[in-house]
Amino acid sequence: MRILLVEDDELLGDGLQAGLRHCGFQTDWLRDGESARLALASEEYAAVVLDLGLPRLDGLSLLRLLRGAGDDIPVLVLTARDATTDKVVGLDSGADDYLVKPIDLDELAARLRALIRRAGGSSAPTIRVGDLVLDPAARRVYLDAVPVEVPAKEFAILEMLMRNAGKVISRAQLESALYGWDEGVESNAVEVYIHHLRRKLGHSRIRTLRGIGYLFEAVA
């Protein structure tokens, strides 16, 4: 899943981006609130990790702008402000979760997965479609209870398709889940990964709708 990290500390931001990518999140990193505001207006993200003490536009102001515009994207505030009043203000301003630095990366990743699950209307830790189960935390896929080897890029595509089973997902949306700003988009990458997934999981699960996108069938 693609997320936006907004953190002005260079050392921490670089470490968090690398760590979150290792946990399976395609992570774009910005260093100020105004750039984040523009990115959120033009890009599609599953969640935001937001520092409060940001230049140009502070985190609370950005959060209030998002909620005032009706944007319900999950936002996890990550800040050094540990006073109870700061937590109350952050949560009452629209934050979905609040973590105080320093943080444990595994806990941050788990909280993000929980936020994304709830935003998608599910509380289950795994995604199940028929006899196919995807475990975002363990990065594992099971077909009829048998493990299936699925590399990272294929896993990202499969997760997006399964989370949206029964809905058409465009090629652009899948590319967005695969690549960050600092990565080049390969012209036929999506088609190649879809081909590999069909070979492993069966050809009837993922339908290609020419000129529209891909549909993951609720029943294979």
From TrEMBL:
Gene Ontology BP terms: regulation of DNA-templated transcription
Transmembrane spans: none
PROSITE patterns: OMPR_PHOB (PS51755), RESPONSE_REGULATORY (PS50110)
A molecular-function term among this protein's GO annotations: phosphorelay response regulator activity
Annotated InterPro entries: CheY-like_superfamily, OmpR/PhoB-type_DNA-bd, Sig_transdc_resp-reg_receiver, WalR-like, WH-like_DNA-bd_sf
Localization per Swiss-Prot or TrEMBL: Cytoplasm
Protein name per the record: Response regulator
Keywords: Cytoplasm, DNA-binding, Phosphoprotein, Transcription, Transcription regulation, Two-component regulatory system
UniProt main location, coarse: cytoplasm
CC terms in the record's Gene Ontology section: cytosol; protein-DNA complex
Stored Pfam families: Response_reg, Trans_reg_C
Record-annotated Response regulatory domain positions: 2-116
Listed CDD domains: REC_OmpR_PmrA-like (cd17624), trans_reg_C (cd00383)
Organism field: Parasulfuritortus cantonensis
Domain OmpR/PhoB-type: 124-218
Portion annotated as DNA-binding: 124-218
Post-translational modification 4-aspartylphosphate, affected residues: 51
